[in-house]
Amino acid sequence: MRPHPEQHWLPMDTYLEAIERESRRFREVLVDQPAGTPVPSCPGWDVDDLLWHLGGGDVQHFWAWIVANRPEGPQDYPQPERPTDRHGILAVLDRAQGDLMLRLRNADPADGCWSWASDTSLHTVAFTMRRQAHEALIHRVDAELAAGERTPLDPHLAADGVAECLEMMYGGLPTWGHFAPDGSRIAVDIDDTGHRVVLGLGRFAGTDPDTGTVEDEDDVQVLAHEHTSEPSKPFDLRVSGTAEDLDLWLWHRAGAFEPGMSGDEEIAGRLRAILAQPIG
C-alpha cells in the first residue's frame, strides 16, 4: 500500500516560512549579479532567466493566481509579459512573491486547489504550499551556484524535499498508466535526520491519450516512509547521505557528490538510470 500523501509532511507554517525565507535569499543573491551571468545548474539560462522563472509566469505569479482562483484550473490564467530589464523583472518578482504569500496565508490548506498532480487527493492548497517551498529552495540553490555563494539547506526541509522529489518528480503516476512492481525494496536513508524513504522498482506501461505515445519503461514508486531506527523488512539496496546531499543529488544540483550505495548492483544500476532522467 502506498503511503497516504500527507501523513509525513511538515507543518504548513513551516512551508510558508520556507517560501518566504528561500525567496528572500534567492532575490538577495541575484539582485546585483551582472546581466548575462550563467546559471550552471540550468544550462542555457542566465540570472535574469532564473529571476523570471521563479517570479514570472512559470512559478510564483502563476501559483498566486491559481490559489486566488481556486479551485479553477489555469485555462484563464493571464500570462504576464516579461519586462526587458532587470528592474522590471524584479518588480514582477516582488509583486508575485508578496501576492503568493498573502494568498497562501489567507487560505485553508484543506481547500480544493488545482494541481498538475494526477492524484486528486493532492488538489489542495496544502500541496501548493509544500511544492512552492521546494521550488523556492531549489531555485535558491540555483541562484547561489550562479553567484558562487552556497549556504547550507535546512536539514528538515531538505529531508522533506527528498521525499517530495521521489514522490512527485519520479514516483507520480498518470491516470492512463499502470505500475507493475517487481518486489524490489530500496531504503533511502537520510543520515542526519533519521528519515527513510522506501522505494520499489517495477515497470510502468500505458498509452498517453494526448500524444498517442506508448510507454513501457523501468520506473520507481515510493512504498513507505519510515525512521531508520525502526525495524523493517530486508532491503535489496541501501542509499544513504545527508538530507542536503540527497535532495540536491535528486535534483541534479549536487555536483560530484555520489550517495552511499550498498546491495544489489543490478538494482543500483536501474535506480541510477531512472534518477538520471531530467526533471526540470
UniProtKB/TrEMBL annotation:
Molecular function terms, GO-annotated: metal ion binding
A GO cellular component entry from the record: plasma membrane
InterPro entries tied to this protein: DinB/YfiT-like, Maleyloyr_isom, MDMPI_C-term_domain, MDMPI_metal-binding
Domain Mycothiol-dependent maleylpyruvate isomerase metal-binding: 16-143
UniProt domain MDMPI C-terminal: residue ranges: 156-264
Protein name: Uncharacterized protein (TIGR03083 family)
Pfam families listed in its UniProt record: MDMPI_C (PF07398), MDMPI_N (PF11716)
